[in-house]
């Protein structure tokens, strides 16, 4: 009897000390904004999809309200660097030998990203239609319009070396190749900005334009692949 009283008392105290919103889900509005239960617009959001966590909402393609950010413990930039010995073992070949052509149609991942991101029909080097030469691309990093494919790099939003240092070194080779060719993690941007960025994370580099969009895209990839 005494044991049951103790347990009941503990449960009551736990309920009293938890905030009212502690067990409420995250709401994703029709405009893809993820509202946490302790925020201003949570109660005002009437048409929504429910997610158990803010991470799950962001991973589904949602975004945070303007002016909000993840807590330090949730932020992908708050991570501990792997030891220098692990960093030294990184090589691009760990993620496959260049761009993949999984469907064997002669258009590798680079060409497919150029085709999918061009706002106009693309032109090819020859009738085989294997290599894109011209199109119309709007750089996510600068907002500039680019027509010459040779001036574009296909950037990994979450850099391969960064991923290696934050968990990818324990993946299988097949998973690393999937990561390196995943369209969610790829954008066509100016070669100069891609090389300026290098292998930097969110705490070290942001593009000149569309910074919030870039942060959400980075976080989405981190969550999808379970990086630290």
Beta-strand fraction estimate = 5-15%
Strands, total number: 8
Name the strands of the widest sheet in spatial order.
2-1-3
The succession of helices and strands, N to C, reads: HEEEHHHEEEEHHEHH
SSE-based structural type: alpha+beta
Overall pLDDT:
84
Quick one: overall form? globular
Account of the protein in words:
The radius of gyration is 22 Å and the shape is globular. It contains 8 helices and 8 strands. It has a 3-stranded antiparallel β-sheet with strand order 2-1-3. Strands 4-5-6 form a 3-stranded antiparallel β-sheet. The chain has a two-stranded antiparallel ribbon with strand order 7-8. It folds into 2 domains: 22-65, no CATH class; 90-225, no CATH class. The longest helix has 16 residues, at 2-17. Residues 14-18 and 76-88 have low confidence and may be disordered. With 228 residues, it is of the alpha+beta class. A hairpin with a 4-residue loop joins strand 1 and strand 2.
Explain the layout of strands and helices.
Layout: H1 2-17, E1 26-29, E2 34-35, E3 48-51, H2 54-59, H3 84-88, H4 109-117, E4 123-124, E5 132-138, E6 145-148, E7 152-156, H5 160-165, H6 173-180, E8 186-190, H7 191-197, H8 211-225
Antiparallel strand pairs: 1-2, 1-3, 4-5, 5-6, 7-8
Keywords:
single chain, 228 residues, alpha+beta, 2 domains, 3-stranded antiparallel beta sheet, 8 strands
